Fold this protein.
Amino acid sequence: MAGVAATAREREVSTSCSMCREGVCVIHGPVVDRREIAVFIVSGLLLLFGIIAVYTTTWTLAGALLLLVAAVVSGRDVLKTAIISLIEFRFSIAVLISIAAAGAFLIGNPAEGATVLYLYAIAEFLEEYAAGRAERSIASLLQLAPQTARVRRDGAEVTVGVEEVGVGEIVIVRPGDAIPLDGVVVAGGSSVDQAAITGESVPVAKGAGDAVYAGTQCIEGYLEVRVTKPVKESTIARVAALVEEAQAHPSPTETFIERFSRYYTPAVIFIAVVLTIVPPVALGVPFLDAFYRALVLLVIACPCALAISTPVSMVSGITTAAHNGVLIKGRDALEAVGRARVIVFDKTGTLTTGRFEVEDVVGFGVPAEEVLSIAASLESRSGHPIAEAILRRAEKEGLVLHEVDEFVSTAGKGVQGRIGGRVYTVGNSAPSAGEDTVEWRSVYERLEADGKTVVLVGTVSGVIGLIALSDVIKEDAQATVAALRARGIRTVMLTGDNERVGEAVARRIGIDECYAGLLPEEKVTMVERLMERYGIVVMVGDGVNDAPALARANVGVAMGAMGSDVAIEAADIVVMEDEVSRVAYLVSLSEKTVSVVRQNVTSAVVVKLGIAALAILGLVSLWVAVAVGDMGLSLVVIANALRIGRPGVDNPL
């Protein structure tokens, strides 16, 4: 059926598109072709009048002619495909249907022959409609980005097509406008709805220096945006391209079913021939009865529902994920995530924010506030991430900074300066030992045992205080790991940090296994070992530093990759927003998609085998076989697959 549907879609695609941007014309046509609907109405009326004429009047010949016309009109694509297949010596699904319909006419059952082609054509149309709906979900992403932009040129505002806007130009975005192109805010401020890209439900505040993306909505305020990418390279265009690419990349289940179908159809035709010959010869069954049963078997054996059960489910899952800020680059990746029993996480930037924050300030003989004030005063001259964290904490507590003289910064050790006539140091090494050595060292070891980075503040005579910092764990990290454990999935953390820090973070989050002190190539080796031990391994990282491990794992998931070309290229799945909880959502979506595939395949096989058995016994008519075992079953499969895209596949946290 899929091949016939493709023929119909080719007609639609070949037309020019008034909305088209390069590369997306295939998805801008109407979902429903009105000409097809008109054909079904006309052929349906011909079918109805033909049945009335054959069974309720003496105009049998006229009725048979009406039924023949109805069959040819409604089944023209099926018959054309069948003829081409036979010429090329390929036994497609269309061949089965055409043989069954022609056989029905030959044995004096024109009503059933016409009904077979008519119902099959409707089922084919509905499959095409389902595929069209999935493709339009990609088009809906692209249509969020406006076709024109207000650009500042020569001191004036002009409205031009987005394809005419160059990189570096300034576009004007007013309240309620959709941002036309990717860029950086240079003036103004606003809340921006980024749901189209990230799946976030809450608008994000944007100001000068912040990145914004085509297709996102300016809720309030005014923005001036410097364009950083042309329309063809915008984030939303890449999203659509990746989703479309993923739809063309079959999963293992799909590949198996396609391979199976190539051998299945000739086998069915052979069985039908045997069913036509053996019963009359061996059992004395009338030839016409045996031939009719064989025709019914041909119809019910059409693997339409089986053939579409996997692709329509996978496409539904991929497009649902895209609308929730998760890009899946292949159906095989979506299927593999649901089968994985272990997920590997990088630490920095994935489970943690990658930003230091001060957690403890301890003073020895001086108030903790004074320790923090001295450290912040010295660190105000430094640009180190630890210095930035200390300054943020001092600002948060409203501390006044001191004037610093004779400032010296020593790479790898720390900073030194004179405050109020006294020299202070801030760094990772202690000044000359004093009477306080035992006291501060025990506190130092306790804080370090908790996986914190400890900075010493002192004078030339000894340590006066300690500041403990840590890479902040993401708010949703612990809940994500707990949700994965509830699904029977083991979690592993790989980090380049030292073992003490790694173990402390893993313990706080609830990670099952932790491997620390790893270089990038060692992470690849560890992923390979985990694959040998557990089978399918999903690796979650930032998409840049972890690119080798992401590429080596069965499935690589890049976190927080909005606007990052490197991350999108490196991974099989891209989480656009920096939320680790999307990994739990991805697992939930994958498991549901795989479950729907299994439901569809099982129902298709069970129903068809049951009706086939009845057909061999002569207990099922030709039109019932089409209406229930083919069209009806295909409808059930399609409806079940589209259920994936409805509300309800939410983040399990």
